[in-house]
Amino acid sequence: MAITVKASLGKERYYTEVVAGENILITDEPVDKGGGNKGFNPFEILATSLASCTAATLRMYIDRKEWSVETINVEVELENFPLTKRAIFKRDITFEGTILDEEQIKRLRAIADACPIHKILTNDIEILTKFS
Questions:
Q1: Which helix (H) or strand (E) holds 45?
Q2: pTM, whole model, 2 decimals?
Q3: What is the pLDDT of residue 56?
Q4: 127, 96 contact by CB (below 8 A)
Q5: Ramachandran quadrant class, 34 (left: phi over 0; alpha: psi -120 to 50; beta: rest)
Q6: Whole-angstrom Cα distance, residue 14 to residue 12?
Q7: What are the DSSP calls for 48-110, one per residue?
Q8: pLDDT tens, residue by residue, 117-128
Q9: pLDDT > 70: what percent of the chain?
Q10: Is the pLDDT of residue 87 over 90?
Q11: Among 28, 49, 66, 104, who pairs with 35 as Cys (CB 3.0-4.6 Å)?
């Protein structure tokens, strides 16, 4: 399944409109990096992809199992180390409105790792670029 997004950046420093289908997202850089801080920065978008995909994947599984879980919270911290070409995602998952047993938590851990964005980030990645 291929998806396409288009990012357009005009003369306003780093203010970028990203379009995916009928949806628009604004990205920007913080003020201390020369931007206007009017949207998520690219690193936040990357961490958001993992957090939101994890939450949605867990919700699908929990609903299918008919477990009573009011809220799924997924917090992702991304640390980037460009000099060593390493990035670390720290993912903290909590549940509200329920008490889950050890077996349920074990299964949910496996389901979280099966989220499509987690799989992409832990697989081999290739970026093909062309200028036209």
A1: helix 42-65
A2: 0.92
A3: 98
A4: no
A5: left
A6: 6
A7: HHHHHHHHHHHHHHHHHHT---SEEEEEEEEEEETTTTEEEEEEEEEEES----HHHHHHHHH
A8: 999 999 999 999
A9: 100
A10: yes
A11: 28
